[in-house]
């Protein structure tokens, strides 16, 4: 029987008269990578911000490990939504040190996450001098500090060159073996197709498709058919 680390039921977010997220019911299987696909502005980031407590839901329910989500569950959730918030005058290690002090974590955790994201050899180089790919990996290292069971990554490869995308893809694929479930939000079909085990397709705030990825299927064709059907085309 499938075990779901996260479920949402009829999750809705309204801004004024606009429904940004409309009755979304996600099922995220434990130790998997779930690709959340959709055009820009579809409601992906808003959904993830509700799951991480960055914004309040208007209605619906969120369940984490079988119980009603509460802010206490954030200790088991790591997230990189939009660009990582870095102190650009500090090194990778110093950026992580600031967070370990805030979270009350041991310094040993710094070396562990730097090893995971392959940033152990950056020394005293300031993070403001990092490439975009290195900044993204440092953002992921920060999200991993609390040893989360669920890691949420919102468009993590935006702006990366092909080598940076491949390194990040390999890193993300390694997480389920470490007991970390990943939700990966993207509008890039190839990124999700090569990384995820399950997909959900959001358009106009609605979840229009959710299933295991079948690599024999044409994901682009599936995506376009789902989007068009949701638009009444």
Task: Please compute the radius of gyration using only Cα atoms.
Answer: 18 Å
Mean pLDDT across the residues is: 91
Helix-and-strand structural type? alpha/beta
Largest sheet composition: 6 strands, mixed
The CATH class is identified as: Alpha Beta
Provide the CATH architecture.
3-Layer(aba) Sandwich
The end-to-end span amounts to: 37 Å
**Strand-and-helix sequence, N→C?**
EEEEHEEEHHHEHEHEEH
Q: How many strand units?
A: 11
Could you say what the CATH topology is called?
A: Rossmann fold
Proportion of beta-strand residues = 25-35%
Protein name: Mutacin ABC transporter, ATP-binding protein MutF
Keywords: ATP-binding, Nucleotide-binding, Transport
Family: Belongs to the ABC transporter superfamily.
GO molecular function: ATP binding; ATP hydrolysis activity
